[in-house]
Amino acid sequence: MKVGVVGVGHSKFGKRAEATIRDLSHEAVKPAFEDAGLTPTDIDAIVFSLAGDMFNGQGSPAALVSDYVGTQDAAPIRIESACASGSAALKTAAAFIEAGIHDKVLVVATESMTRVSTPEATELMSRAGDVVWEFPFGVSFPAYYALYASRRMHEGLTRAQLSAIPVKSHEYGALNPNGHLQKTVGLEEAMKSIIIAHPLNLYDCCPISDGSAAAILTSEKTAKELTDTPIWITGIGTSGDTMQVAHRPNLTNLSGAQRAAKAAYEMAGIKPKDVSFAEVHDCFSIAELMAYEDLGFCPIGEGGKFAEDGEMYIGGKTPVNIDGGLKSKGHPVGATGVSQCYEITRQLRGEVPGKRAVEGAEIGLQHNVGMHGTFVNVLIYQR
Amino acid sequence: MKVGVVGVGHSKFGKRAEATIRDLSHEAVKPAFEDAGLTPTDIDAIVFSLAGDMFNGQGSPAALVSDYVGTQDAAPIRIESACASGSAALKTAAAFIEAGIHDKVLVVATESMTRVSTPEATELMSRAGDVVWEFPFGVSFPAYYALYASRRMHEGLTRAQLSAIPVKSHEYGALNPNGHLQKTVGLEEAMKSIIIAHPLNLYDCCPISDGSAAAILTSEKTAKELTDTPIWITGIGTSGDTMQVAHRPNLTNLSGAQRAAKAAYEMAGIKPKDVSFAEVHDCFSIAELMAYEDLGFCPIGEGGKFAEDGEMYIGGKTPVNIDGGLKSKGHPVGATGVSQCYEITRQLRGEVPGKRAVEGAEIGLQHNVGMHGTFVNVLIYQR
Predict the structure, then answer these.
(1) Deepest in the core among A41, A99, A182, B368, taking most CB within 10 A?
(2) What long-range pairs does B132-138 form, CB within 8 A, spacing at least 24?
(3) Is B283 assigned a catalytic role?
(4) Do the Cβ atoms of B374 and A45 come within 8 Å?
């Protein structure tokens, strides 16, 4: 596979209840067009990612956004894969291009979540869980991931190892102007903050945010005509897992992520050690920890040590979430996958300034997870 | 493009409020696996179509259904394009295959609508319209299409011409065991039934239904290994249009359908006259009438005469909706696109018995419309 990323854009993430999904989308799409040197009428198809209709009561949001950004005559489609919707949209756009159905595809990924109260937002997100067999019994997403964290702590993971992850994310996130929470946090404070779902505390959990990100993908031929610095998507792997956490054989890792990573590495013809840096789905600290292992950055069971040793910082073995990750940058659920693409594209182009720059990066990896590993997309990007 | 359809399945359509989306999906998936001679673990990816989360309050329904039908380790994704969701799922599955990302893809398309009251269902569907600028002012879907019908009547379309369409659909639909409404209707009765949204009456409007359809798509190589009677998807065209009907330059035809048809014919290398029969999106009689013209079965403006002359019957110029169409078979919105694929596949295989058989059919066309032409997918199938 060789699909070009020729333009990216990003809105400010944060509490943006005053902005509609139209407004947020436009904030990301406008710079993406400028970046690519294209206009809306150049676009053949628009692939829109939004996870939750229920937040806004707007069905068919793809048509709404397509019309607003000026691509109303292009082919519209909306993709949903819970919190992995953004990367699922990128995958779909890449497939349309490789299949020869469309040549220039705009991917827009948006979520507006803070218009409803926090308890209501938590309920609406929890409705991605089985509404007959799990949701009614109180299994919210912090609860799903708390089960994994509990098991890992039973097996030896320490509080300090887990909290090393948000400390790192906030350190980089404080430098990201698009981020929701721009502040650093010390290890002591991160370890002792209020419990959300035991053992996960406030700093283990990403915030609820509004925002949008956009990317323009094209065929190899068109990308080479449009830009001297195309970034190539060279591998895509996807997998699933059981809907109910009750059916999982163990609560230590996400086997769907392992399968997706294997498929992506194989398609791109690379190995985990070749990855210069990664954007992983850290909806909770434990999710980032499992990702280190599931993606092969360290052996299974050694994610805690990897974090404690700071191997996920620039200069470490594999820098992870140098944009602040979901934890600090924020997690407008449908937008996250394309926000990861934005960061990877800019890093590989050498456009990220200062302390956040991964110098000489050649290969970026994206890991985007829906639910508790029920949807996983892994994408490989190369210069 | 050459993607094989190697198995299809269909649930009973109708008022099925006792069945969940799991149950309905299983009813379609089980016969699809039997038809293809495959089992769930053979499947690489599941593409799920469902238009409205709000009908059931279940987010991420793809994972729920994937787990229930036994494909939980396959790559899941959910597609939404309003009432064109089913064909958008087929398009996405075909693209995954042509791009070499997945080889054997299960497409499942389901909608459960009668669990809520009819007024509530009408509201939820209307929410696919712009919830800021059109929905609050009373523009439901019967109203959108009534605007088109009014304009066409102003330009000469007669009541009898329009009613000839549901008379035909009910005649064939009465013979379809999977259909929702299995009864015939005379022209007089169809012309004089109660008004829903002037000038559209009861027989101009499809019912609200529950149901599911499934199809298994594979690469050309795999299809030839699996079956002696693969049906090939050889052309796909998609287009969009403005979100708001207020922004349309005219209310006589759907320009998105014309663009989508042109692209599909070009990809398949065929012309409208080559089409042996078609499954078109007749959510309202006026929609089928515009489709005759938009797909090139008759000149623009002559759809009324085409209907009056019975050219859409078997034996006429181009048989249309020989399964009863949305009008008689029913329209579980997310399922409709794959139900069309089911009918086309069985017709091209020569499996449809009796008076509904289109003898010697070589090419089938599918036309699936979301909203008032805001999403349109046209697919070409060949033996």
Answers:
(1) B368
(2) B132/A20, B133/B244, B133/B246, B134/B244, B134/B245, B134/B246
(3) no
(4) no
- Surface of A (61-90) touching B: CB under 8 A: 62-64, 66-68, 71-82, 88
Taking the Cβ of residue A54 and every Cβ of chain B, the question of whether any pair is shorter than 8 Å is answered with yes
Q: Among the options A83, A205, A298, A341, which is catalytic? A: A83
3-state helix, strand and coil shares in percent for chain A, rounded to the nearest 5: 40, 20, 40
Cβ–Cβ below 8 Å for A75 and B1: no
Give the count of alpha carbons within 13 A of A168, CB side only.
27
A253 three-state secondary structure: coil
- Catalytic: which of A331, A341, A367, A372? A331
Q: What are phi and psi of B377, to 5 degrees?
A: -120, 130
Average pLDDT, chain B: 96
Which A residues in the span 278-297 are in contact with B, Cβ-Cβ below 8 Å?
none
Whole-number Å distance between alpha carbons of B157 and B340: 27
CA distance B260 to B375: 9
Q: How many CA atoms lie within 13 A of A93 on its CB side?
A: 35
**B241 in A contact zone (CB under 8 Å):** yes
Q: Please tell me the distance from the alpha carbon of residue B164 to that of residue B306, in angstroms, as a whole number.
A: 10
End-to-end CA distance of chain A: 14
The neighbour count for residue A242, using CB atoms within 10 Å, is 20
| A59 neighbourhood in chain B, CB within 8 Å | 51-52, 54, 82, 124-125, 127-128, 131
CA distance B235 to B263: 8
Q: B104: distance to nearest CA of chain A, Å?
A: 14
In this structure, are residues B51 and B338 in contact, taking their beta carbons and an 8 Å threshold?
Answer: no
Q: Looking at residue A59, what is its pLDDT?
A: 86
Closest-CA residue of B relative to A81 is: B77
CA A196 to chain centre: 22
Read off the amino acid at residue B354.
Answer: G
- CB–CB contact A54 B53 (8 Å): yes
Under 8 Å between Cβ of A369 and A287: yes
Phi and psi at B80, nearest 5°, equal -140, 125
Q: Is the pLDDT of residue A56 over 90?
A: no
**Catalytic residue, candidates B10, B83, B170, B205:** B83
Contacts of B320 (CB under 8 A, 6+ apart): B168, B277, B278, B279, B280, B288, B291, B292, B297, B312
Chain B residue numbers with beta carbons less than 8 Å from the beta carbon of A124 are 59
Res A58: pLDDT: 87
Q: How confident is the model at residue B55 (pLDDT cuts 50, 70, 90)?
A: confident
Output the six-digit token pair for A41: 């009428």
Q: Which residues pair with B364 in a beta bridge?
A: B277, B381
- Supply angle C-alpha A324, A329, A330, rounded to 5: 135
Q: Cα-flanking dihedrals φ and ψ of residue B326, to 5°?
A: -60, -35
Is A341 one of the catalytic residues? Answer: no
Which whole number is the average pLDDT over A29-44?
Answer: 98
